[in-house]
Amino acid sequence: MAYRGLGCLLVLLLACSSSDDGPIAAEAVVDEDVLEEVAEQEVPTVELSTESANIVVETGGEVADVTAVSVAGNAGDYQLSVTVSSPDTGCGQYADWWEVLDEAGDLLYRRVLLHSHVSEQPFKRSGGPVAVAVDQVVCVRAHMHPQGYGGVAFKGSVQDDFAAVALGADFAAALATRDPLPEDCDF
Question: What are the phi and psi torsion angles at 76 (to 5°)?
Answer without folding.
Answer: 85, -5
